[in-house]
Amino acid sequence: MTARGNGARRYDVHCSGAITREIRRVHRRAARQGRGKAVTRAFRLVVQRLEIDPFHVGEPAYRLPGLRMQVRTTIVRPIVVDFAICEDQPLVFIKGVKLLTAFGT
Hints:
It is a single chain. The chain is α+β, with helices and mostly antiparallel strands. The chain has helices spanning 17-32, 36-52, and strands spanning 12-14, 59-64, 69-76, 79-86, 91-99. The protein contains two helices and five strands. It has a five-stranded mixed β-sheet with strand order 1-5-4-3-2. It is elongated. 20% of the residues are buried.
């Protein structure tokens, strides 16, 4: 956890090796469609928002009470990101990234 200048806590955003590979696959597919830069911008925006205030990003999907985590989903075109927020530690785990279909297809 790193401290922000105004005293607010900052969340650490993590993803597994499998999710990292999934993100790369999504980016490669988007790049073939001419949407690679849009995916990069969208993913960076999602991560920035998750670092600052993840409980106000996207919509809640369900809670994992035993792990004290909330699972949420957000859409920033052209991607959908599923993530889990730890309720007692400033941690966010990216669970999945999907590429949305392009407009008009």
